[in-house]
From TrEMBL:
Membrane topology: Multi-pass membrane protein
Gene Ontology MF terms: structural molecule activity
Regions crossing the membrane: 76-97, 118-141, 161-184
Any Gene Ontology CC annotation: bicellular tight junction
Name assigned to this protein: Claudin
Species annotation: Champsocephalus esox
Length: 211
C-alpha cells in the first residue's frame, strides 16, 4: 500500500512546482538585455516576457507594453505560451485527481486499490505537466542562446536568460519529482488475502479398518 507521508511530500513538491509554473508564465523577465561586449549602456534595462515587454530606467521608472497583436508575435513566444498553459492545466487536473487518490483523504477509502490507481494517474499527469514546462522553458532558453552567439545579431539586440527561466526550470523539476514520488508509492501491494491451500483428503474422514 502507498505510504501516506511520501505521498504528501510528493504532492507538496508538485504543488510548489505548479505555483512556480504560474509565476514563471506571468513574469516578464524571460529574457533581459545583455551588457556583454561593447553593449555597456546601463541607462535602461529591457525585459521581454510571454505577455509583455518592459523597459526599466536607471531612475527606477518602469514602462511596460502588452503585446496587442497575436498574429505578429514570434512563433517561439506562441509555442512557449501554449506549452506553459498546457503544463498549468495538467497540473490543475493532477491536483484534483490526487486529492481523491491520496491516502490522507477519505475519498474512496473503502476501495484502497482503486484509490492507489487514482493517485498513480495524478502522479503521471504531474510528470507530463513538468515535462511540458521543461520543454517550453528550455526551448525559449535555447533560442536566446542561439541569438546571443549569432555573429549577425547586433550587440545592442542581444539578450540573456531572465529570472523567469530559472523559476520555470525549478518549477518543472519540482513538478516531475513530486509526480515521481506519487507514482513510486502507488505500486499495488498484495491483495490482502491469505493464500488458500487445498484441504487434505485425509482430514475429516474417519479411519477405516482393513482386514
Amino acid at each position: 500500500m502507498a505510504n501516506a507521508g511520501i505521498q504528501l511530500l510528493g504532492f507538496t513538491l508538485a504543488f510548489l512546482g505548479f505555483i512556480g509554473s504560474i509565476a514563471s508564465t506571468i513574469m516578464v523577465e524571460w529574457k533581459a538585455s545583455s551588457y556583454a561586449g561593447d553593449n555597456i549602456i546601463t541607462a535602461q534595462a529591457m525585459y521581454e516576457g510571454l505577455w509583455k515587454s518592459c523597459v526599466s530606467q536607471s531612475t527606477g521608472q518602469v514602462q511596460c507594453k502588452v503585446y496587442n497583436s497575436l498574429l505578429q508575435l514570434p512563433g517561439i513566444v506562441l509555442g512557449t505560451r501554449g506549452l506553459m498553459m498546457a503544463s498549468i492545466i495538467f497540473s490543475l487536473i493532477s491536483i484534483l485527481v490526487d486529492v481523491v487518490g491520496m491516502k490522507c483523504t477519505t475519498c474512496m477509502a473503502e476501495r484502497p486499490e482503486q484509490k492507489d490507481k487514482v493517485a498513480l494517474a495524478g502522479g503521471v499527469l504531474f510528470i507530463i505537466a513538468g515535462l511540458l514546462a521543461l520543454v517550453g522553458v528550455s526551448w525559449y532558453g535555447h533560442r536566446i542562446a542561439q541569438e546571443f552567439y549569432n555573429p549577425f545579431t547586433p550587440t545592442n539586440s542581444r539578450y540573456e536568460f531572465g529570472s523567469a527561466l530559472y523559476v520555470g526550470w525549478g518549477a518543472a523539476c519540482l513538478t516531475m519529482i513530486g509526480g515521481g514520488f506519487l507514482c513510486c508509492n502507488c505500486s499495488g501491494g498484495g491483495s490482502g488475502k491469505a493464500p488458500s491451500y487445498p484441504v487434505s483428503s485425509s482430514s475429516g474422514q474417519p479411519a477405516r479398518d482393513y482386514v
